[in-house]
Amino acid sequence: MGSLDDDVAAIHDGGFEIVGLFPLPDEAWWDDFYMPMEARIDRLRSKYASDMEASAILDQLAEEPSMHRRYSDFCAYEFFVVRRPFQERADR
Question: Is 21:48 a contact under the CB 8 Å cutoff?
Answer without folding.
Answer: no
